[in-house]
Amino acid sequence: MKHERxxxxxxxxxxYWNKLRERNKASSGTHVFVRKSKVAPKTAQKLLFYVKKPxxxxxxxxxxxxxxxxxxxELWRKYGAESCFETxxxxxxxxxGRTMMTFxxxxxxxxxxxxxxxxxxxSILGSLQGFRGKxxxxxxxxxxxx
Length: 146
Fold this sequence. Notes:
Radius of gyration: 15 Å
Number of helices: 5
Number of strands: 6
Order of helices and strands: EHEEEHHEHEH
Structural class: alpha+beta
CATH superfamily: Hypothetical protein
Number of domains: 1
Helix content: 25-40%
CATH architecture: Roll
CATH class: Mainly Beta
Shape: globular
Distance between the termini: 23 Å
Strand content: 25-35%
């Protein structure tokens, strides 16, 4: 049963993905993926990072630590330094006035040298329309990362 929710696929746009990559190059350690909604894992062993159009590929993996949901200002004060946002103002612009946010903490982030093609990703995950993130089992995770 523990392998059914082995990994959670997080959706990132190209801009956010590039910031995450740069942040990881600048410092290893714990990072945070910021979500405007609660669509995020409660439990998982791994996080997979799916970069949406135009890439439409799973491009990285990390070890899941925890999901935190709450007041946007309080989350920023505690964990903002782990995010890819350089300033509180940049974070606020991303939050678009939301008072509740979700932070997904992770470590050991690795970018894939050769991500699966869009076609291969679709053949593994199925339709990607309306895709907002989801759990995948161990077998599917292995298909996406090899």
